[in-house]
Amino acid sequence: MTTDTPRTLVHLADSDLTVKTEDDVRGKEVVDRNDDEVGTVDDLVIDPQGLKVRFLQVGSGGFLGLGEKKQLIPVDAVVKIDEKVHIGQDRGHVAGAPAYDPDLVSAADYYEELYGYYGYPPFWAAGYAYPAYPFYL
């Protein structure tokens, strides 16, 4: 898609960085466009240079943290935030997203594949515009 190398992204929980309070949706339930539960936001993946949230890390399934599946969802998929985070995709689409295995693919390639899977241009592509912040109801 693009030859530009994306910046390094970090998990907010693994850094000493902060984001604006309204951007911190950790702990909120994520629901799909049919209002079906997708999971809970476990962490935020951010661009430390721009302090922008790029992905939500969503955990689903499992019991007491065992067997829980982690998925990254581009922040571009968020359509509304109230007491929940609403995304414009189906739960099944999220479940079918590419899995990340650092032994098989680089993070940059994975991020590009993930953006393509969800139908959004990657944040490092020419002309990319950070999504407008979803309004609270």
UniProtKB/TrEMBL annotation:
Coiled coil regions in record: none
Gene3D superfamilies named among the record's database cross-references: Photosynthetic Reaction Center, subunit H, domain 2
Domain PRC-barrel residue range list: 24-86
Gene Ontology BP annotations: photosynthesis, light reaction
One Pfam assignment: PRC
A GO CC annotation given for this chain: plasma membrane light-harvesting complex
The protein's name in its UniProt record: PRC-barrel domain-containing protein
Gene source species: Jiangella alkaliphila
